[in-house]
């Protein structure tokens, strides 16, 4: 062996590079460490260098033999000079104290990231960016390990620090890919028990930042914030569901969604969270028994604070470990699919928190957010706003949507707070926002982003839905992009929800003065593909539970709640209800405790009322799915017609719902506690009618007033129809009639 020190160059370049390595400031450590050809006195030699600050000695495998490396710097630089070219990747035997281990040198592996990937990422078109960036468990040169990659364009140096290198940023400095801003390194011999972060040195200030992986798949338990190496071994069993989803005519199919916060739906006897696998045994049967077609999960990406409900996301690609591993979540979703229930994910691309270990000022600059707080900060939530005009940021979000749909078989994305994204002046006073290039308040970058998102979903995931929570009159939210719309499948009807709840909270004696709140919605009901939501937002922060919103004594409260559910389920539009609504939860939702399931126990004095609400929802859900007229024309005006919307004095409305098969049902709703005998309504067809649903039935806790035997029409013109029928209309109740 040639002595390294005897031929070591004393050039300024070598000395400078060495100092930068020792100080963890080198932007390109691969140019110094690893194996390099050098010229000495016209001889071609090969210099191998390894920086091992905790090693007491090290050997290098040369051919079939081990040779000692020479420690050329006391801080841990080891070198070897060879007259023959060495085989790469180089295998080391390292002794640190009393431990000796073998490992391949990361600096003798080439990069496995392609130029195509970097180009597409820079263009904002790398849909599978989560397979390029982050921590990828791969095999390189027949050696298993993990390739780490991160986007940090304003870094002077980026290192992987973790449980495998004593969290020392000097050991695994990454290579840079030039102007792409991407850094990577392949580290062999890591396992899924290892955790890591990125240590970033800003090239302008020299400040050191320690960050979790933006593309991390799994994180250590709170309060820790490190990312875990993660792989999946789940074997999906939902092929039949996915094939059927591709062919599903969702426009004309029933969509009845149960909105769930997994951490507070139910807890065990000790008050602890149920795991994803436990929920597969409890939540799935409940949803099936109740007759819902879909569940919507409040955000399940990693977040530090329970009270944010998951909306303050710090790990966009990370499944929250509160309830188990990513594969445990896959198991739950698989169970839903095998039970023929779709899974919607509440997705939050509108903002991210300011936690200094996450996305905020990621490389020491406003990387994912805007620098100017008039564009980059959300005043309502104290969070940052994504810079949607930056290709790499848009790519991050598009790839994240792709990730959930591809890797977790999610059936739809409910996009949170779309209105806050669309308007530059959202919740801002004059002077607190910047107009777009045309002087307007519309966020043009967001419009392009949402269109790109919806086009991607439509092209790559047939049958998957996108649903906008958009609270303004922004036009064509749920219309195709090629027609000038944003491209969403559906939009929450916040106007209907607000009008309906403000109406029904009034004492019945005053409702006649607010009758237009029941009828106004039909003026715009078909301008979008609407979902009618009674969501989590309506039962928290002092708004009271749905039951507690109802006026009157206990009987009237439950009767009003049954009437409200009947109105929602028979009105045009798809349906959504938050957990607890289905059995009349009495108190507001509390994110830190289970729902009040004890209300359904026989030893509870009011269990009959709550069981009645639960049975009512079960029957309404079944009828909604079975009766063609109640769902096939939810989005088309010819699926609805008023019988009478003018009975203000008695607070009664009646209407016809029609189906694609020309079938129809009649709905009559009485919003007063007065029993209406001999109430005549016009009907579109002569014949005998039967009452197929009555919210006042005894089994629901009602007074059991209604129409027993068949109802026969009379040849008496009424309410613009040539035929009419006389019915009994129960108090605070709704009935559904069908021709026999």
What portion of residues belong to β-strands? 25-35%
Number of strands: 36
**Percent of residues in helices:** 10-25%
Q: Largest beta sheet: what is the strand line-up?
A: 17-18-21-24-25-26-27-28
> What is the mean predicted local confidence, pLDDT?
96
Low-confidence blocks of residues: none
What is the count of DSSP helices, taking H or I runs of 4+ residues?
Answer: 16
Shape type: elongated
Radius of gyration: 32 Å
EC number: 2.4.1.18
Family: Belongs to the glycosyl hydrolase 13 family. GlgB subfamily.
Subunit structure: Monomer.
GO molecular function: 1,4-alpha-glucan branching enzyme activity; cation binding; hydrolase activity, hydrolyzing O-glycosyl compounds
General description of the model:
One of its GO terms (cellular component) is cytosol. With 740 residues, this protein is α+β, with helices and mostly antiparallel strands. The chain has four domains: 12-108, Immunoglobulin-like, CATH 2.60.40.10; 115-228, Immunoglobulins (Immunoglobulin-like, Sandwich); 235-469 and 478-492, TIM Barrel, CATH 3.20.20.80; 636-739, Sandwich (Immunoglobulin-like). Helix content is 22%, strand content 26%. It contains 16 helices and 36 strands.
